[in-house]
Amino acid sequence: QVQLVESGGGLVQPGGSLRLSCAASGSIFSTDTMGWYRQAPGKRRELVAAILSGGSTNYADSVKGRFTISRNNAKNTVYLQMNSLKPEDTAVYYCNLEGRRFGAQVAYWGQGTQVTVSS
User: Fold this and answer.
1) What is the pLDDT of residue 54?
2) Cα separation of 119 and 33, whole Å?
3) Per the CB 3.0–4.6 Å rule, which of 4, 14, 26, 49 could disulfide with 110?
4) CA 59 to CA 51: how far, in whole Å?
């Protein structure tokens, strides 16, 4: 089993910055992909950013140039640095880990952390 615990959410003014952290514990492998998703009220959950085991990254077009994902494999932690935040970034942000266990693809989720961008 894998447990994911997010932290770092909160209220910030437009143009501000926040840094989210996600600490993973349990059966973690360096080959796992870790990422961040978000879900705004009335909208579907969407991928924000992901980082593969080799360090390659993917970003949603809406956050490119503003958000940066990184990971520390020694600490089993993934980070999301969010700069130039906009009101439309307001959502619950979820940490995600995906990998293969016993030949099957699995996914784990954190409990979510609220990010509110408002003046």
Assistant:
1) 86
2) 35
3) 4
4) 9
